[in-house]
Design goal:
This protein has about 240 residues and is α/β, with parallel strands linked by helices. It folds into 2 domains: about 160 residues, Alpha/Beta hydrolase fold, catalytic domain (Rossmann fold), CATH 3.40.50; about 60 residues, no CATH class. It is built from 11 helices and 6 strands. A 6-stranded parallel sheet has the order 2-1-3-4-5-6, sandwiched between helices. Strand 1, helix 1 and strand 2 form a beta-alpha-beta unit.
């Protein structure tokens, strides 16, 4: 029986964000992508992941999914045999002006989705989500925008609520004992590479992999490099 790899998608994402990895790994791994669109809390998302996962599994989370993965580690670290955190973060909402700026930026997108729909919001949002050189790749951009556009405004509102009210995961990082890899697009402006090094500094025997010429959507932007990073992590 193949071992299980749980792949956790980020904000307004689904299995499309992992498709290159699923295609590359499925002969060796039982790849599963849980759907937690119903939840407005990262902890509830993590509980759902655990309810769908076998007793022992490998775990990878991208963006918001990385934060969900950390909540899985908070709850059941003994069930996770290896961990990969991609293009993500670990701190709670900042206090003061920095936090207010983040909330304002997120709510601008919510208001855009409420007014014009999630696809229109995705067309705006994607401009900062990929490496600038990839903005002319119509197939990539269309796939990302269609994925976002397939989600409802209510899902977006719930997930934004979950991110604004996210818990700090510093203590979770310090407690991780399974083999852990942090992977990040070299040009991720949402979750910078340096942030992943900060996380890795708190996790014993972890490593950081930069996906060159990629932004926040690194799994889709540079699938060959990402697949190589996954094979190294999983072996």
């Amino acid at each position: 029986m193949k071992p299980t790899l749980m792949l956790l998608p980020g904000l307004m994402c689904d299995a499309h964000v992992w498709q290159p990895q699923i295609d590359a790994l499925s002969d060796a791994w039982d790849c599963r992508v849980p759907d937690y669109d119903f939840a407005d809390d990262l902890g509830a998302m993590a509980d759902h992941v655990l309810s769908e996962a076998p007793e022992s599994f490998a775990l990878a989370g991208h963006s918001m999914g990385g934060r969900v993965a950390l909540e899985v580690m908070r709850r059941a670290p003994e069930r996770v045999v290896r961990l990969a955190l991609l293009d993500t973060g670990y701190k709670a909402l900042a206090e003061g002006e920095a936090g207010e700026r983040e909330v304002a930026g997120r709510m601008r997108l919510v208001e855009l989705a409420q007014r014009d729909g999630t696809r229109a919001m995705g067309e705006d949002w994607v401009q900062g989500m990929v490496h600038p050189d990839r903005l002319s790749d119509s197939a990539l951009i269309n796939t990302i925008v269609e994925m976002i556009g397939s989600k409802t405004v209510a899902t977006f509102e719930r997930q934004i609520h979950a991110l604004i009210h996210r818990p700090d995961a510093t203590e979770v990082l310090e407690s991780i004992r399974c083999p852990t890899t942090f992977i990040c697009g070299s040009h991720d402006s949402w979750s910078p590479l340096q942030q992943h090094q900060e996380m890795a500094d708190q996790v014993r025997h972890s490593r950081v992999v930069a996906i060159e010429a990629a932004g926040h959507m690194s799994t889709m932007e540079r699938p060959k490099a990402m697949n190589e990073a996954f094979w190294q992590w999983l072996s």
